[in-house]
Protein: histidine kinase
Amino acid sequence: MEPGSPSSPSAGRTGQNDGPSSHELGSLLTAAGVASVWMEPDGTVVDANDAFVSVTRYDRSELLGTAFSTLVGDDCPAIESLIADDATRKVSTTLPIRTGAETSRSVEIHLERFETENGSARIVGLVNRRATPTESASSSEFTYGRTFQALADALADGIIVLDTNSDIQYANPAVERILGYPPDELVGSSKVTIIPPRLRQTHLDALQRYLETGERKINWTYVELPGQHEAGHEVPLGVSLNEFWYDDDRYFVGLFRDISPRKEAERTLTAKVAQLESIAYLGRHALETRDTDALLENATELIAAALDIECCAIYDSETGGTDDAFQVRSRVGCDDATLETEIQRSSADSLPEATLAAREPIAVESFETDTRVPGSTGVTDHGLTSGVGVPIGPTTDSPGVLAVYSAGEREFADHDIDFLESAATILATAIERQAYERRLNDTVAELEVSNERLEQFAYAASHDLQEPLRMVSSYLQLIESRYADDLDADGEEFIEFAVDGAERMRDMIDGLLEYSRVDSKGAPLEPVDLDVVLEDVLTDLQVMIDQSDAEITAASLPEVQGDAGQLRQVFQNLLSNAIEYSGDGQPRVHIDAERTGSMWRLSVHDEGIGIDAEETSQIFQVFQRLHSRTEHDGTGIGLALCQRIVERHGGEIWVDSQPGAGSTFSFTLQPAETPQRNHCV
Ligand code: ADP
Structure:
């Protein structure tokens, strides 16, 4: 049966005729997907099948008795005028139907007038439920009323609806704001238009797979995908997807948002984190390493990576081979040929030269057009277009420039410049330290040479003086023995003074000789038991101790790293001084040892005459004495020798004293090194 021209239509419900009743016909038409309505010639609805009820969304009871004109739009012609008389028995047209859901739906309807068996006229309306392609593209087919339309229009997020062929059926106005395409242009086109070409096939394959197997490889709730802007660039999108069925067809709806600002913020954050980590690493490395060249090399690599840049170079303005050129101390990503024009200082301003002159960072977006750096156009021949120069070190006297170069025109962000300045500060400290260490090493070397020369001189002088002195002493003794009878009392006294002077001079020369040989003639340092050393010293001083009735007490002494012979001299000088300068009472001396940190502190305490605070430092100088020889015998070299020996052992010596309250001479020594155990059996 042809739905448009029922051969035996009947509005009767008697079932007397042999054709199907309108009710039966209605069921058949419903099964065929055709919505049908029967009307009086004036358009009053007398019957409607389930399909028509479903299309119009009224209850059947609401439809019956209703004028067809109330179901269609106000602008539509009355049904009597569509099928006026026998001449126009049928017509096919598109009418907007007001549905029971208070929305309007455009339908294609076929109206036909026929006579029933009892001779009365009827009009049947047959509605094609399926939307035509043209209709499917119209937004009204896909909206759920004015609310949706208003929402979709106002929404900042883009909405597109597409069918299973990936053809776009609907796009809201935000789509144009986000991707540049006017919705009118998009509707009817393929969705792949808004997908970057590189991802189109993947999308089509995924859609096909989903339609066939239901398998989803992306999260429909939220997924980040790039969109293709009408202008050609990509736009990062946050997308939510869903699907729905309409009239037995499946559609997909996508809600998407431009996440460029968030992506940009994420990129900035990631860049900042990478830059901060680089600074932290560089700072630590600068503190740990003594190898400045390795540090600079490492720095250029780190900086280039953190800025994702093609070339990074560190120029030295001070140690260049000639006055006319910067020296490239380190570079990465570019060769000498690229930097050739940059290092020439005589030519027009290059980036490093301009940076030094400006005394502040210079960011150049294009070397070709920036008038501050006309000399840097050379690097453009090597594909470098933009860059930044930052002075290394104090702005008034920078030893160099840190420069980065990019292949594309790049607008450097503030945090990029901050990062470069922080890196330059670290490098400046390292370069400055290297220069300082170089100066220090030079000074130490000079001092060592001069010290050696002095030692040689002192040794030569004292050694060579011994010979004539011996001669003076010998001849004085000769005169004394041979001409003693011829000398009067004055003569004898003069000879005595001369002999005494010669002996004193010999003692001083011996002391000086010993002093000059502390370093050169000292034995290697090895573990020394100070208890044994002290015992030997006390034996040597036994006569002095007995004569002065001195009371010497000592704590248990440690093993130290030292030259036993020299340490014996130290104890001997300090103990003999403690007895010598004990004053009128019985000398009481105590030797003590205490561990202080990594060193042993030894002390020799007496209860003697003490020393004025102002004189405590001068007594350690060669030949410096606080008393005349008539008061106390001595050469004034003992404490100077002690100091030299202690310093050779890596320690210090000092005195704490008050006049009349005794003195404590303290010195530090390193503990004995534990010998390595041999584990071999
Ligand atoms: P010397 O004892 O041969 O004069 P030193 O270098 O040993 O030379 O001592 C330098 C000076 O330090 C001594 O002349 C003395 O004035 C002072 N001095 C050294 N030890 C003591 C001490 N224990 N108490 C007071 N004064 C001291």
About this structure: The first strand starts at residue 34 and ends at 39. Confidence is low (pLDDT under 50) at residues 1-20, 131-144. The CA atoms of residues 490 and 508 lie 27 Å apart.
